[in-house]
Sequence to fold (235 residues):
Amino acid sequence: MGRFVPHIPRPLFGLVLMGGFFASAPMVQAAQITPPPSCEAFLTVQSRGCIVSHYWTCTADPAGTHWRLSMDSDGPISLSFTDEEFRWLESVDLRNGITSRLIEPESDPASLTELMETGRDSFTFELRVEDGARVFTRSYSGFDALTGEQVTIDGEPLARTEFAYSQSGPDGTRSTSGNQYVSPELRMFFGGKETLTLPDGAEIPYDASPVDFARPNEAGFLNALPLYDCGDVLS
Fold:
């Protein structure tokens, strides 16, 4: 369930939220990303759908956790914080400031370990969503499964997955399904060919598959500009 990059219309730079994990924001300067102080970036991924994502760890955070900043051609979209099981601990929509935090303990926690050991993992959990003065709960339920297919993308060995989950809240129920990729080494999911089904039944297919992986000192590392499909009309 890797997955979850909101698409909203306006860019927002220099966002600083009070409390929680988002005590400081990354800086975007001259088409390069600079992680917050005491944080070290370790990966940049260019994906289909005009998305580039940057990953870093911070010394003050629990072991096994990492941050992901996702950007499109207009700038930052979302900032998320996940653990070594790839549970969605916290995320913020950088276009409108909506934050989501995992409600613990979960009914059925997402477990990357279970997926890799058994080939399938189910999950059921809730997020506490804060949208200004509006606070509500959004529920998620679904599964990830390994297809058995191994692929290599830009030198990165990945396992192909199939997945499906639904999310329910005051704005109705929507679902997402398709295929993604998981890295056993990095303990992270990456997007793939997926379909979002809206509450009215409308379907929106999209491709968020990774194309390029850049580590420190490699070309493209911390490049703020997405490279693929940016001339297309995106949902």
Remarks:
- The CA atoms of residues 78 and 93 lie 5 Å apart.
